[in-house]
Amino acid sequence: MAADRLLKYWLIAPAFLVIAATLLYPLVAALWYSVHDWNIAQQATLGPFVGLENYTRVFADDPDFWHSIRVTLVFTAFSVVLTLVLAMALALLLTGGDPMRVYVRTLLVIPFAMSPALLGISWRFLLNPEFGAFSAVIGFVFPWLKGVPLLADPTLAMIALIASDVWHWTPYFMLMFIGALAALPQETVEAAQVDGAGKLRVFYEIMLPQLRPVLAIAVLLKAIFSLKVLDQVVTLTAGGPGTATETLAHFVFQTAFRWYDLGYAAAVAYLLAAVMAVLAGIYSRYVMERHP
Amino acid sequence: MAAVTLTGVEKHFGTFTALHSLDLTIADGEFLVLLGPSGCGKTTTMRIVAGLEEPSAGNIRIGDRAVNDVRPKDRDVAMVFQNYGLYPHMSVEENIAYPLKVRGLPKAERAARIRQAAEKVELGPLLDRKPRQLSGGQRQRVALARAIVRTPQVFLMDEPLSNLDAKLRVTMRAEIKHLQDELGVTTIYVTHDQIEAMTLADRVAVMSQGRIQQLGTPEEIYDTPANLFVAGFIGSPPMNLIPGEVGSGSFSAPSIRLDGLTFGASGPAVLGIRPEDMTVAEGAGVDMAGTVYAVELTGESNLVTVLLGKERVIARAPRSWRGKAGETIGLKADRSRLHLFDKESGQRLENPRTADQ
Questions:
Q1: Dihedral angle, C-alpha A65, A66, A70, A75, nearest 10 °
Q2: Size of interface A-B (CB pairs under 8 A)
Q3: CB contact set of B275 (below 8 Å; sequence gap of 6+)
């Protein structure tokens, strides 16, 4: 009996060990670093304990941090809204089981199957002014735009970054919405049609309100994904030009691995993690409530 | 209010034919019931009238308007769905108001109409509730109120009572009948329940395999079923159908012989006798004898299942009658209520009335 009761712990032990090594250890270590002054360019071992100094520095005097917050918020706002609107539009178009729609749906999922780091690299090539496909196409339609270095302009670089992210995430949310649309009671839609509602009314007054729980989860999830965006930033714009696309995660990345200021980077990372933890908490509560 | 006319309406789903060239005219103010087993095409027919399904061929007219290319929202019909189709995020009042709201009726007028409709179906105190807070019967009433809140050309009801318990179904049936009488709106009602069909309908269209098998008043359908399908489908317990031979004034099957009938037909045929037209009898005038297989007391009478050779038939006996399984008893058939069908085609041959009628 006792052995039986222990068995379950043995069974989860490997998974727990993996998580401990990859998640818990870094989490605790980072917290420890965040209260020390440690620049690994200067010393290989942990520097002096400084208390909350790293945290106060974030709020008191670091315009770069605040700049990265603004960049992150702009990126998040646009990428969340555009991704979800586009995903819903595609879901409405592609819901249904006929072979053509299933085929198109499968094709559209490909962007989501790509690693975000690779995605950044391929978009970089795509947008290259000299030999990129984008320049070739746009140059064919509007010859005066041929060879415009898109990623060299702060606004255009941000737009490119948002576009690549929307391109990556739209399929995922499209599938989510297709599932939600299929679960919608068809009778309510038909009742509304017979009651005299046109297509737009049916969508806004009957379908959308019933999709609210799913939409709330989608907004929350996409916000979490956007707030922590890093891979494409590294490979597509490297935060540039200048610091135009320097998102918070990229700022942490730069601080830690370019300026080697590990203690400070850990403190900033912890602030980001705190925000994410709150959002994740709301998310899981929402999901749990819906599926008790 | 308006008549509804379907001409040559067909519906195919891939290679499956749900409706074979259907012709049907529903008179202005008529209560027509589409009756049949599941998959017979009755719901498809109704959905085609509503515009929720496009016919593969044929024409639909509501009043003097061809509505083939008219969208559901512009057909001016109201529909009650099997699962009610209430809007879960709206209150009862908003649900009932919705058809008026989308038509841009001013708020004051809306309120008056909602009150009227809610009163008709006795929903008054529930207007602020959400559908999920209501019982099945109450939801059904909301769906009805939403249908009658404006005066449409046609009411469409798709098995509206099938989700209610037996007792409530009887009450709601009477309410629907009363409402339709009062409002006089042309109504198409889909059901697989023959009792609903018989009690509600001005005319019943019995459907099977995408075809109307018979169209007529409940009496016609019951008294002169057009074919074996209708004969077997209508009536509970179902009509006894006995295959045999007919010729020169008599019907004979392995253990049955009925003489003194007048019909010209001869050859293989199926004789139909409803259980209530077969009584337990003794002595002279007994048409057939058999062994009691089972006796079921329904309350108002006894249902006696009798073995006639290999054939099993059901007869009705008075409630006071006491018989036991295994007993041999005599049965007498009401000669004026016999039905005869062609064995091959299943079509009704003629009413085999006795000579003296």
A1: 10
A2: 65
A3: B235, B237, B239, B240, B303, B313, B314, B315, B316
Nearest to A188 among B51, B71, B85 (CB): B85
Q: Please answer yes or no on whether A195 and B98 come within 8 Å at the CB atom.
A: yes
Single-letter amino acid code for the residue at A57: R
Distance of CA A174 to the CA centre of its chain: 15
Cβ within 8 Å, pair B79-A190: yes
Give residue ranges of A with CB < 8 Å to any B CB.
Answer: 185, 187-188, 190-198, 201, 206, 209-210, 212
pLDDT for A73-101, tens place per residue? 999 999 999 999 999 999 999 987 788 88
Do B186 and B48 share a structural domain?
Answer: yes
Note whether B78 contacts A209, CB cutoff 8 Å: no
Q: Is the ipTM of this complex over 0.90?
A: no
Percent of chain A with pLDDT over 90: 34
Cis peptide before B237 (omega within 30 of 0): yes
pLDDT digits 0-9 by tens, B130-159: 999 998 888 988 998 999 898 899 999 999
* Closest in B73, B88, B156 to A198, CB measured: B73
- Superfamily (CATH H level) for A56-290: MetI-like (1.10.3720.10)
pTM: 0.80
Best mutation site among A184, A187, A194 for testing chain B: the one with the most B CBs within 10 Å? A194
CATH of the domain at B58: 3.40.50.300
CA distance B84 to B146: 10
- CA–CA separation, A115 vs A126, rounded Å? 16
Same domain as B93, residue B197? yes
Domain that holds residue B75: 4-228
Sheet holding B240-247, edge to edge: B256-258, B250-253, B240-247, B267-273, B338-342
Render pLDDT for B298-354 as a digit per residue (tens, 0 to 9): 888 889 999 988 888 999 988 888 888 888 888 888 888 888 898 888 888 875 544
Q: What is the DSSP string of chain A?
A: -HHHHHHHHHHHHHHHHHHIIIIIHHHHHHHHHHTB--BTTT-SS---B-TTHHHHHHHHS-HHHHHHHHHHHHHHHHHHHHHHHHHHHHHHHH-S--HHHHHHHHHHHHHHHS-HHHHHHHHHHHT-TTT-HHHHHHHHHSGGGTT--GGGSHHHHHHHHHHHHHHHHHHHHHHHHHHHHHHS-HHHHHHHHHHT--HHHIIIIIIHHHHHHHHHHHHHHHHHHHHT--HHIIIIITT-STTTT--HHHHHHHHHHTS-BHHHHHHHHHHHHHHHHHHHHHHHHHHHHH--
Half-sphere exposure of B272 (CA within 13 A, CB side): 30
Picking from A191, A198, A212, the nearest residue to B79 by CB comes out as A191
Of B207, B228, B249, the residue at which a domain comes to its end is B228
Reported as a single tens digit per residue, the pLDDT across A20-64 is 999 899 889 888 888 888 888 788 788 788 888 888 888 887 888
